[in-house]
Amino acid sequence: MKRVTRDDWIEEGFRILSADGDSALTVDALCQRLRRTKGSFYHHFAGREGYVDALLEEWERRSTDRLIASVRSEATVEERLRRLNHQASEEGDPGLERAVRAWSAREPRARAAQDRVDSRRLAFMEELLVERMGKGEAARRMARVFQLMFVGAQHLDPPFTGTELYRTFRFLDPLLERVRGD
After folding, report:
1. Helix axes 162-171, 137-155, angle to 10 degrees
2. Higher pLDDT, 19 or 168
3. Does domain 6-178 have CATH number 1.10.357.10?
4. Taking the CB of residue 169, how many other CB atoms lie within 10 A of it?
């Protein structure tokens, strides 16, 4: 029988959250799906609260830290914006994003993680847009528009993702030029 690692528990939690929401995220469900005992679960985590903390930390790391690091690797701001658009629209997991956002309405730790992620994503987008458009209120407003589009696209049913979302973000490119002098 294959050894189940801490990462396996986290991945299974993401699958449960994405498919069934936070109410389905129980120790019993995790153990049943991974075909392991509660002892195995408690070997890796200090109870459900410790598991939730680890799950949210990993979600934040993946959806923010890794994303930002990947985008920063591009040479020009235009390339960074394109990479960010591609990763946000075609490589993300809208089901997981939507589930964490819904969970954050009921769970303070999920709310704190969601707030940190939203704040960091917005600040990063604003940083890119200030570089692209110049300083000013226009870059702040445009960063908020992109954030609103991203979150809103995930909440459509089915979510607005992939090439369609990528093209919609690209549709706004002319606005970045038009408001440069504002």
Report:
1. 160
2. 19
3. yes
4. 19
Q: What integer pLDDT is reported at residue 182 of this predicted model? A: 45
- Residue pair 93/136 in contact (Cβ under 8 Å)? The answer is no
Which residue from 147, 144, 132 is spatially nearest to 179, judged by alpha carbons? 132
DSSP 13-64: HHHHHHHH-GGG--HHHHHHHHT--HHHHHHHSSHHHHHHHHHHHHHHIIII
Structure tokens at 116: 């940190």
**pLDDT tens digit sequence for 144-168:** 988 888 888 777 777 776 777 777 7
Give me the amino acid identity at 130.
V
Q: 126 is written with which tokens?
A: 């604003």
SS3 content of the chain, % helix, strand, coil (to 5): 80, 0, 20
Structure tokens at 56: 């949210």
- Which residue shows structure tokens 């589930």? 99
Q: Mean per-residue pLDDT for 162-175? A: 76
CB 161 within 8 A of CB 94: yes
CB 122 within 8 A of CB 144: yes
Residue indicated by tokens 């994405």: 18
